[in-house]
Design goal:
single chain, about 210 residues, alpha/beta, TIM Barrel, 10 strands
Length: about 210
């Protein structure tokens, strides 16, 4: 079984980013959605990205942003990977995929259909719990069986939504994702990571690799 990758989202400072890198995290997410409590200025994100090893993928998180905004922020922050929430179309994602690694995020509300994931063949896919106002970091758990179905339509599936050290092993066993994404489940406050919780979460994920 291939090791499940770990993505830590909502990072806002060098110390947390460095700890994530030291613990073997594959991806670190930076939130460029102004309404998020974890919003970070692109210039600050760049300083953090420049301080982490090049093998760690820095991911810019956007919500209903235009192509021009995505390119401008990515250029300022030094990003090669973008995660798109909201209404990003297959054509938009396909175009951006020529320039970036694109992660298309899906909110698993009552309208979600796993087969729709197949429309985004140029993208990796992230599935998250639905919240009427927030985009990520809600602490809500998504529909794991539906996420498992979506996996069959995705080239690379990232499972998000309410994951913690207590439930991530069960989530991995149920969904069999390529990666897991955590934000509020390893925080002491929005945008501030609890390093003990980080360590415990990653240990729980690594334990699934040996099963």
């Amino acid at each position: 079984m291939t090791s499940v990758q770990v993505k830590i989202c909502g990072v806002t400072n060098v110390k947390d980013a460095g700890t994530c890198a030291e613990m073997g995290v594959s991806m670190i997410g930076f939130n460029f959605y102004p309404q998020s409590p974890r919003y970070i200025e692109p210039e600050i994100a760049r300083r953090i990205i420049e301080a982490i090893p090049p093998g760690v993928c820095a991911v810019g998180v956007f919500v209903d942003a235009s192509i021009e905004e995505i390119r401008e922020v990515s250029d300022t922050a030094g990003l090669r990977c973008v995660q798109l929430h909201g209404h990003a179309s297959p054509d938009m994602c396909r175009g951006l995929a020529h320039e970036f690694r694109v992660i298309r995020a899906f909110s698993m509300d009552f309208q979600f259909r796993p087969e729709e994931v197949s429309l985004f063949g140029d993208c990796d896919v992230l599935v998250d719990a639905h919240h009427p106002n927030l985009r990520g970091g809600t602490g809500l758990t998504c529909d794991w069986p539906a996420a498992r179905t979506a996996r069959s339509f995705a080239r690379f599936l990232i499972l998000s939504g309410g994951l913690t050290e207590q439930n991530v092993a069960e989530a991995v066993a149920t969904v069999s994702p390529h990666a897991v994404d955590v934000c509020s489940g390893v925080e002491s406050a929005p945008g501030v990571k609890d390093h003990r919780a980080l360590e415990n979460f990653i240990r729980s994920v690594r334990m699934t690799d040996s099963r």
